Amino acid sequence: MQQIRGTSLLVKALQEEGVDTIFGYPGGLVTDIFDELYHHDDIKVVLPRHEQALVHEADGYARSTGKVGVCLVTGGPGAANMVTGIATAYYDSVPLVCLSGQVASSLIGDDAFQEADIVGITRNICKHGVIVNDRKNLGRILKEAFYIARTGKPGPVLVDLPKNVMVELGSDEYPDKVNIRGYKPSTKVHIGQLKKAVDLLNTSQKPIFLIGGGVNIAGAQAELTKLVELTKIPVVTTMMGKGSIDTKHPYYLGNVGMHGSYAANMAVTECDLLFSIGTRFSDRVTSKISEFARNAKIVHIDIDSAAISKNIKVDIPIVADAKEAITAMLNYVNEHETAEWLQQLFTWQATHPLTMQSNNGLTAKKVIDHINETCQDAIVVTDVGQHQMWTIQFLELNRNMQLLTSGGMGTMGYGFPAALGAKLGNEHKTVICISGDGGMQMNIQELATAVAEELPVIICLFNNSSLGMVRQVQTLFFEKNYSSICTRRRKSCPRKCSGTSDQCPPYSPDFVALAKAYGAEGIRVTTEGEIGAAFDQALKNTDGPTIIEFIIDKDDLVLPMVQGGKPLYEMILEY
Amino acid sequence: MEKRWLSLFVENDIGVLSKISGLFSGKAYNLESLTVGMTEDETVSRMTIRLISDDETFEQIKKQLNRCIEVIKVIDFTNSPIHMKELLFVKVRKCSKGDLDELFRIAEVFGVSIIDYDKESVLMECVQTESKNNALITLLSSDFQSIEVVRGGSVAIESISITER
Predict the structure, then answer these.
(1) Res A312 pLDDT > 90
(2) Which of helix, strand or coil describes residue A237?
(3) Does the beta carbon of B142 lie under 8 angstroms from any beta carbon of chain A?
(4) Would you please indicate which residues of A are annotated as catalytic (active-site) residues?
(5) Are B64 and B93 found together in one domain?
(6) Is B87 within the bounds of a domain?
(7) B64 and B116 belong to one structural domain
(8) How many folded domains does chain B comprise?
(9) pLDDT beyond 70 at A499
(10) Do A182 and B68 touch (CB under 8 A)?
(11) Do residue A309 and residue B60 have CB atoms under 8 angstroms apart?
(12) Helix (H) or strand (E) holding B90
């Protein structure tokens, strides 16, 4: 057995795990690791400009490729900056291995320079976190980290690497097997329980499938479509479940929840069987729990037993991987007589279609419609806010279109870096980031990364000079007391401002000029007629990113909207 | 809301206690006592946890604990035959001569050891079930001026033939 340094074993682990790209930001506690990486051409190291963005980039890479995203940062501030990124990945079940440098074991506890107890800090937002306290455990811990990240319900795993462990000589062995006695993820479906669920399905008059992100993560889109076509039972999705079936499919009714479609929210309210797969029934989905699916029996399939009966009491719980469960179901289901029920649903759909009330000017919907018309094979990544909800409402998805969004955490600043990660993992796909003027600024520095990596990502930046989602809440529920939402506000402005004046100060920053300052392209679009030309120009820029800034009306709202605590069927449909 | 008992087999590793207690605080579960110690296998520790919750929350707590990588096994001790004991120390101060006599009588009747004393203080050691310890504390605090209590939290093990809790 050859004796090698910890750094060499780490690189060997990355190679054995098939990692060809990592996201790394160097610092004093990881210089040895970066030196080792310097000598290996087979692992690309991307240098983001902030560690939060770094984790989002690894996250976008992981979500869009299905591989484990790998992060490498230094200790102290580098590690602490990862926190939001890790939490974002955790709540959306994204497989990451986050490696952080740590001070030498002998210095831990001394408040040494850049010492931070990152395992402790992230304990409640990681699937697993561990410090390597002994060189002889390094190989096993790395192997387990990748295994834990990608199996069961995927999630981020943090491995803290003390400096002395990484330079110490030790075994060159990287284990090929994992045996963790407290972690035996099972994906197998209990057939007896599944048959009971199918029986319930067969006796229901008004069944509906509620599909969450678990189906997308399991890669069960084709199986789900087959199931729907075989049974003729309509489908609604959560935000994270969108795209699990072609959004143009005749049995697809849209999203449920706070900004769900009228037909989908009514379908859940009136159904007599809610057959849910891969969702954790977040409060944004259920709204008032006692009125959620009030007439229905509920079947719940999820890989995480703790997600079952956590928020919603279910009649038939099934712990299983979505793909295995749906595949097994295909053997037992029959065509369903749902004509009358479908008729009701289609009527709701026809009388209350998703629309966007607006003046005749430029709207987010018109931009998204353009994407729908021109892109058939793209990855769309959103930030968080109104633009996110509009995208989720209006973007059409099929098997070749993918949507990435921060659902659980709702992390502003996620979109742009995640789009860069997606592009790095999918060189030949068009990647479009949809962001707002608020969220874009939370990781704007990544323009430098995008320019450096020559990533032709198109950034649709909807600028309404405000933190629009909060403004919408203030419009609807706080008597238009526009508190701290104006991004044009300056010190000289009146303290209380209705938000509409010709004398408003100019917007800062000038995104077009800023894009150029970074070496990117910038286009400003103010009218509907310019949309097509702007996209054409952006697509021609194959060497780097292009920001298209769309100036939209701050009064545009995301509707329908269910106020927090109200039942799903009490939707605000117009304002 | 009811009192519940859990016994956990966990990895004897750094941070595991913090992981378990952090789960309770992070999710606002009501943790009443937690004891932990190494088992016959030095890589495994056992925890005995007392908590108060409703049925649904209790189910959720068990699932969340099972989800932790470091947790090897979760056993519900609430209704199973077990032996459970808690170590209790009570120091009674400012005792009169009559108080001292009374304390020695109490010790005899309640099966409590007096492990140290002087002219005006007594130190009692009591290894009993938690409810008996509660009763002793109630008695001593009503009859004596100054008491100091240190409790260890319960530990429990499955019964072989009889139950004591």
Answers:
(1) yes
(2) strand
(3) no
(4) 51, 113-114, 163, 469
(5) no
(6) yes
(7) no
(8) 2
(9) no
(10) yes
(11) yes
(12) strand B82-93
Rounded mean pLDDT, B23-34:
96
Complete DSSP assignment for A256-270: -STT--HHHHHHHHH
CA-nearest residue to B24 within chain A is A124
B53 touches chain A (CB under 8 A): no
pLDDT range class, residue A16, cuts 50, 70, 90: very high
Q: Assess: ipTM above 0.90.
A: yes
Contacts of A130 in chain B (CB under 8 A): 15
The pLDDT tens digits of the residues spanning A85-126 come to: 999 999 999 999 999 999 999 999 999 999 999 999 999 999
pLDDT of residue A497: 85
Beta strands in A284-336 (DSSP E): 297-302, 316-319
Query: Which of A148, A306, A313 lies nearest to residue B69, judging by beta carbons?
Result: A148
Residue A136 CA to residue A173 CA, distance in Å, equals 10
Q: Cβ separation of A148 and B72 shorter than 8 Å?
A: no
Domain of B132, CATH number, reads 3.30.70.1150
pLDDT for A357 beyond 90? no
Is B67 part of any domain?
yes
Q: Is A150 on the interface with B (CB under 8 A)?
A: no
A109 at the B interface (CB within 8 A)? no
**Six-digit token string for A408:** 């659980």
Residues B35 and B92 in one domain: no
How many C-beta atoms surround the C-beta of residue A250 within 10 A?
Answer: 12
Is the Cβ pair A182, B69 closer than 8 Å? yes
Going along chain A from its start, the domains and CATH numbers come out as 3-171 (3.40.50.970), 191-351 (3.40.50.1220), 364-551 (3.40.50.970)
Q: pLDDT per residue over A249-288, tens digit each?
A: 999 999 999 999 999 999 999 999 999 999 999 999 999 9
Distance from CA of B42 to the nearest CA of A (A): 15
- The answer to whether residue A309 neighbours chain B at the CB level (below 8 Å) is yes
Return the structure tokens found at B97: 């001569």
For residue A184, give the chain B residue with the closest CA.
B69
Q: Which residues of A touch B10 (CB under 8 A)?
A: 182
Q: Which of B57, B76, B95 is the last residue of a domain?
A: B76
- Write out pLDDT tens, residues A133-184: 999 999 999 999 999 999 999 999 999 999 999 999 999 999 999 999 999 9
Contact of B47 with B34, CB cutoff 8 Å: yes
CB burial class (10 A; 0-12, 13-18, 19+) of residue A333? middle
Mean pLDDT of the A520-526 span:
98
Which chain A residues are Cβ-neighbours of B66 within 8 angstroms?
Answer: 305-306
DSSP designation for A136: G
A304 touches chain B (CB under 8 A): yes
Which residue on chain A is closest to B43 by alpha carbon?
A181
* pLDDT level of residue B160 (50, 70, 90 thresholds): very high
Residue ranges making up the domain that contains B107 = 82-158
Tens digit of each residue's pLDDT (9 = 90 or more) over A205-254: 999 999 999 999 999 999 999 999 999 999 999 999 999 999 999 999 99
Return the number of other C-beta atoms located less than 10 Å from residue A295's C-beta: 11
Q: Read off the pLDDT of each residue in A363-385 and give the average, rounded to a whole number.
A: 97
A183 and chain B in contact, CB less than 8 A:
yes
Assigned domain for B20 exists:
yes
DSSP E strands: which ranges in A445-507? 458-463
pLDDT at residue A359 above 70? Answer: no
Task: Return the residue of B nearest to A131 by Cα.
Answer: B14
Q: Which of B51, B76, B101 is the last residue of a domain?
A: B76
The shortest CB-CB distance from B70 to any of A182, A304, A306 is to A182
* DSSP code string of A353-371: -------SS--HHHHHHHH
Residue B20: CATH number of its domain: 3.30.70.260
